[in-house]
Amino acid sequence: MALTFDDGPGEYTGRLLGTLRTAGARATFFMLGENVHAFRGVVRQMALDGHELANHTWSHPQLTALPTSKVRSEVQRTQAVIEEASGGVRPRLMRPPYGATDKRVGAVVGMPEILWSVDTLDWQHLDAARNVKVGVSEPKRGGIVLFHDIHKPSVNAVPKVLAGLKRRGFTFVTVSELFQNRRLEPGRTYTELAPKAAPQPPGPPPGSPAGPPSATTPASPSAPASPSGPMNPAAPPQGAGPSGDAPSPPVADVRAPKVLAPSMLAPEVLSPLAR
After folding, report:
1. pLDDT in tens, 146-185
2. What number is the average pLDDT over the span 254-261?
């Protein structure tokens, strides 16, 4: 699973790095460009500790409401400042603020857009005990969990979250490590690494009561019909159907009404939260 932290770096991020280092855990930090200058040493330490450095725009706007030139500026300025502060690490992943994106934004961003499968809502409740409960109980294999390292209760909860998830058998990897065997497409959104479907048992041999007669052995005119009904050559195999991506999670983030991407879920609005 991948733990992710948004909106930093901040005053508690250095302590969080120490907690992760002690636990042998890696995480992904979606950073705001405007915060990087004040915490250059912290960003450098993230890179040295093997965490993933990722882009969360410069100032946390709703990108779908901005003109294309502003979207590009928000992303490119953040790319440049993270690369400079980290000593040469250029982010390969981006998280749109509030999860708000569309085809135009995705094309301008030009990177895979990483959302989440578990939103702890730590920014809303500011309750370390609740963060521990949600952070330990809700993640599933292949999940991406959202916290914010700018909030003290969130950082305070992380030691117990790590311990609880370890007891459940989880290991902690970056988002890129989570998807290491899968190419992430620029402009596409990802919420989790969906588990592979279990292999299906082979079907019945041709000519059996549950299947059609063999193509090379004509059926006897007096043979009874299959129990499952007459065969329709034009119909798809029983049980076939389109497979879809994992459902998009509720989109929530800090500091503004929650906005869903038009291609995802219906909009929902939560109380604004000041920075």
Report:
1. 999 999 999 999 999 999 999 999 999 999 999 998 999 9
2. 42
CA distance 203 to 206: 9
State which H helix or E strand residue 197 sits in: none
57 CB-near residues (< 8 Å, 6+ apart): 32, 33, 63, 74, 75, 78, 94, 96, 97
What is the rounded distance in angstroms from the CA atom of residue 170 to the CA atom of residue 80?
Answer: 34
Q: How confident is the model at residue 44 (pLDDT cuts 50, 70, 90)?
A: very high
| pLDDT above 90: residue 228 | no
Q: Which residues are catalytic?
A: 6, 148
Which residues, including other chains, have CB under 8 Å from residue 169's CB and lie 6 or more apart? Answer: none
Residue range 94-101: average pLDDT? 98
Sheet holding 2-6, edge to edge: 52-55, 28-31, 2-6, 144-148, 118-119
Q: How far apart are CA 30 and CA 79, in angstroms?
A: 11
Specify the pLDDT at position 66: 98
Give the pair of three-digit tokens for residue 263: 């291609």
DSSP 205-244: PTTSTTSPPPTTSPPPTTPPPPTT----TTSPPTT-----
Residue with tokens 């946390």: 60
* Residue 188, C-beta contacts closer than 8 angstroms, at least 6 positions apart: 106, 112, 113
CA distance 256 to 269: 9
